Prior knowledge:
The chain is mainly alpha-helical. It has a single domain, classed as 434 Repressor (Amino-terminal Domain), CATH 1.10.260. The protein is built from 5 helices and 2 strands, in the order E-H-H-H-H-H-E. Strands 1-2 form a two-stranded antiparallel ribbon.
Amino acid sequence: xxxxxxxYERLQKGWTQQELADKVGVTKSTIQRIETLQRKPSYDVxxxxxxxxxxxxxxxxxxxxxxxxxxxxx
Length: 74
């Protein structure tokens, strides 16, 4: 199954979508839409996410395999 790097990193921290939303200052539905690539994050949200997870812009929305997250990207 493919997930975004953002979702993978959030789950690694043990955060719910609501907890991440609170940290970034957006709604839970915004995080859900960003994680499912239905919405691109605003510049401010992107900066906050980059800071929280110490990742580059492109890495956050990268599709990865959740069973072997860094072995391939499709």
